[in-house]
Amino acid sequence: MTFVQLIECRTSRLDEMNRLMDEWVEKTRGKRTATHAVVGTDRSDASHVVEIVEFPSYEEAMRNSNLPETDEIFRGMVALCDEMPTFTDLEVVRDAQLAEDTARRFFEVLATPGDLPPLNDLLDEDVHSVDPVNPGPTIGLDAVRAEFRMWRGAFDFAFTVEDLVAQTGRACARWTWDATHTGDFLGIAPTGKRVTMTGMTMCGFGTDGKITELWWQHDQLGLMQQLGALEPLER
């Protein structure tokens, strides 16, 4: 079971503490069992520092604590604090992957029949979308929605998310796209053909949980071949 340690202290020497943490990260490379660490300062009291460290289990946390480098950093940390740090040990009983849920909902909504929803509950107003179909990035919610409408106007489609990996601020989806070519697409008149395409999308998230970046990679060449657009080049 995932285990989290909450460390709180007061210090006016945060820069020195950060350098101390960087030194510990370098010295424990290949030995530490901590998988994720977040450090924050209280908005109402900048001297109040909170660190959240995640481990695969309590046992792994104890192994990490017993490293000589950990003891060294603790003594250095105490010297930088205005008072003795406090430690709270937490067994994780719920771990909600919100980025994963948002990414899955994005692909579902993108293929929703009828008018394209506003998407402002999923995408940031200044979202950037990078798609190999386009010569450069598409910037802004309105422009990104127009790009999605182009695809929706050319195809009736659905996504199947085959795999999705999420971490803080990022989610990467591997998907299969099944569609019927019903409208003009890059100058290709509707063919009525059933087509399929595989690809991956990396989503970046802002602090409010909305998607701020979309990086697309997909088999565009295979799609054009299925539509018959490459046949003249093969003769």
Automatic annotation (TrEMBL):
Domain of life: Bacteria
Pfam family, one: SnoaL
Gene3D superfamilies the UniProt entry points to: 3.10.450.50
Coiled coil: none
GO BP term, pick one: polyketide metabolic process
InterPro entries attached to this UniProt entry: Cyclase_SnoaL-like (IPR009959), NTF2-like_dom_sf (IPR032710)
Protein name: Ester cyclase
Organism: Streptomyces galbus
